[in-house]
Amino acid sequence: MASAKSGTLYRGREGMWSWVAHRISGMLIFLFLLVHVLDTALVRVSPEAYNEVIGHYKTIVFGLGEIGLVAAIVFHALNGLRIILVDFWSKGTTHQRALFWGVVIVWAVLMVGFVPRQLMHMFGA
Amino acid sequence: MSAQSATSIPDPTTRYRRTGQRGLNTEMMSWLFMRISGVLLVILVFGHLFVNLWLGEGVKGIDFAFVGGKWANPFWQVWDLLMLWLGLIHGGNGVRTIINDYARSSTLRLTLKGLLYFAVVVTVVLGTLVIFTFNPCPVGAEPSLLPSFCEG
C-alpha cells in the first residue's frame, strides 16, 4: 500500500530520481553545447582568437567543470540506454531497478577512470 | 460512464490507445527520435571525449592546430556534423519537453519555445558553416599556430 512513508513504486524511488537526474544533466549538457559551438566557431575568426578563448578551458576552474560536464554526459548516456532497455526489452520493466544500479556502477567505474586522467592532464604529470 | 452502454464495452484484448490516432503522429516520432539519436550520440560523444580529453595531452593539447588537423579529415568533419545536428535536435527536443512541463502560461511557453528554436537554428547553421568553410591554413596567419601540414 502506498503511504506517505513508503511512497509508491515510482515516487521517491530509483525511477523518480533517475528521471530527475536525467532532466538536470540533459539541461546542463544542452546549455554547454550552445556555448561549445560558439567557442569552436572562433576557428573561423583567427587562430589567435580561438587559442585565446579555448585557453580558458585549460584553467583549474574549467578543468574541474569539465569533470562535472563529463559526469553529467556519462550519466545521461547510460541512463538513456537504460530507458531504451525499459522501453524495448521485454524484461526491461521487471529489471528497471537493477538497471538503475547498473547505471550508477558503470558511471562510477568510468568516472574513476576519467578523473585521474583529467587531473593528470590539468597538472601536467 | 453513461455514454457506454453494456453492449458497447470494448473487447478487452484490443490494444489500449491513448488517442484515436493511428499511424504516424509527431509526439510518437519525437519519442522514437530521442531513442535513435540517443544511441548514435552515445557513440559520437564518447568518441569525441576519448579523442579530445583522453588521448595525448587531453584538454591541454586543444588549440587551433589540433582542430585544423582533425577537420582536414572528412571523417571528423562528418563525425562532428552528425554530433552537431543530432545533439542540438535531441537537446532542443528535450528542452521543449521541459518547457511544456513547467511553463504554465501559454504566452510564457510560446516565448520560451520561440527563443529555444531560434537558438537551435542559429547554432546548427553556424556550426555547419564553420565545419564546411573552415580553412586550416588561413593566409597571413602566424605559422607556429597552424597545423604542421600548412606550408609557408
From TrEMBL, chain A:
Keywords linked to the UniProt accession: Heme, Iron, Membrane, Metal-binding, Transmembrane, Transmembrane helix
Necessary cofactors: heme
Entry's localization field: Membrane
InterPro entries, alphabetized: SdhC_prok, SQR/QFR_C/D, Succ_DH_cytb556, SuccDH_FuR_B_TM-su
Family matches, as Gene3D superfamilies: Fumarate reductase/succinate dehydrogenase, transmembrane subunit
Superkingdom as given in the UniProt entry: Bacteria
Membrane spanning stretches: 20-38, 59-78, 98-115
Keyword Membrane: yes
Family under the similarity heading: Belongs to the cytochrome b560 family.
Protein name, UniProt field: Succinate dehydrogenase, cytochrome b556 subunit
Source species of the chain: Brachybacterium tyrofermentans
Organism lineage string: Bacteria, Bacillati, Actinomycetota, Actinomycetes, Micrococcales
Protein encoded by which gene: sdhC
Automatic annotation (TrEMBL), chain B:
One Pfam assignment: Sdh_cyt
Domain of life: Bacteria
Signal peptide: none
Main location: membrane
Location within or outside the cell: Membrane
UniProt key word Transmembrane: yes
Keywords linked to the UniProt accession: Electron transport, Heme, Iron, Membrane, Metal-binding, Transmembrane, Transmembrane helix, Transport, Tricarboxylic acid cycle
Involved pathway(s): Carbohydrate metabolism; tricarboxylic acid cycle
InterPro entries: SQR/QFR_C/D, Succ_DH_anchor, SuccDH_FuR_B_TM-su
UniProt membrane topology term: Multi-pass membrane protein
Bilayer-crossing regions: 32-55, 75-95, 115-134
Cofactor: heme
Keyword Iron: yes
Described function: Membrane-anchoring subunit of succinate dehydrogenase (SDH).
Protein name listed in UniProt: Succinate dehydrogenase hydrophobic membrane anchor subunit
Source organism of this protein record: Brachybacterium tyrofermentans
